[in-house]
């Protein structure tokens, strides 16, 4: 016996010597990467890969084939997918949960109770993903299989609430409360839907009143312009077609220049119009905007204020109010009209050849007898407008 024991000890020492020397077990873990290698073993994986290649992961593919054994009944397979979806749901991985529940439903098993749960659970996952319409479709499908399924009713009510279908949300809550009158979530949802419905209706009434008020103001504004025989320039649409500039056909948005310069024509409580007026100085590439030019104001009154101090771009110091001339262009006839600076804005706008374009009257300002002024209009005919 002693000899046998000595032989066994010698064999053990020889076996252990293989690991003490430079030679290692050929499939041993590397000291540097053992953690990564350890996680490649299916049993110890913390997270399964999204796609499994049987050649690269034969062990994992084998485990999956055991879990989803095609020899299982459709009910068993659907239940397995349901449980998998529930695990993903607990991890808040709602996208994968939806995929798992969908796979379960695709089995089309005959267990209607299980199908109800799959639809209802998928609805919950879709809800957390913000896919409220998809979630609503699922709970409707669940209720077709089981009309009194309370979870489906609750989730349906929540979907309608998120979609701002407040009346429908309240109706679903009422149906659910007939199943369980004390269901807290349904009581809360009904109260919230009722409150939001009242708020929405109130805001809608306010919006309609405001719209009616704005329409009345628009009608009054257009009538005031029409009564003054002020003409509006035709407006071109995006496709290049010309839109009629008649007051009856123009919209306020298409008429005013608010989007371009931040001001628009308005009618005050005394029935007077004030316009945004743009002055252009072509010699220097400069401009000025009078945001509210009263129709009875004279041009010279604004010029006196604007040029009380000469602007920095007037390096020749020549833009004195008394030396300035005012013009507008008739683009259709390619003619120029000079306006007396003592005229009012209304007098200029009422001229038979003046057309207000985009709700903003535009005038050119030049210096009398300046070389630039003499050549600016080229061969265009210039008319004097008193």
Task: Write a compact overview of the structure shown.
The protein has 386 residues and is α/β, with parallel strands linked by helices.
Task: Walk me through the structure.
- There is one protein chain.
- The chain has 386 residues and is an alpha/beta fold.
- 50% of the residues lie in helices and 13% in strands.
- It has helices spanning 2-20, 34-38, 58-67, 74-90, 94-106, 112-128, 132-145, 150-162, 166-179, 184-227, 252-255, 258-261, 299-306, 345-349, 371-376, and strands at residues 231-232, 235-236, 242-243, 266-267, 273-281, 286-294, 324-330, 335-339, 355-356, 362-367, 381-385.
- Strands 4, 5, 6, 7, 8, 10 and 11 form a 7-stranded mixed beta sheet that branches. Strands 1-9 form a two-stranded parallel ribbon. A two-stranded antiparallel sheet has the order 2-3.
- Helix 4 (74-90) runs antiparallel to helix 5 (94-106), helix 6 runs antiparallel to helix 7 (132-145) and helix 8 runs antiparallel to helix 9 (166-179).
- The relative contact order is 0.05.
- The model is unreliable at 23-29 and 242-260 (pLDDT under 50).
- It comes from Eublepharis macularius.
- Keywords: Repeat, TPR repeat.
- This is Tetratricopeptide repeat protein 4 isoform X1.
- Residues 268-368 form the Cns1/TTC4 wheel domain.
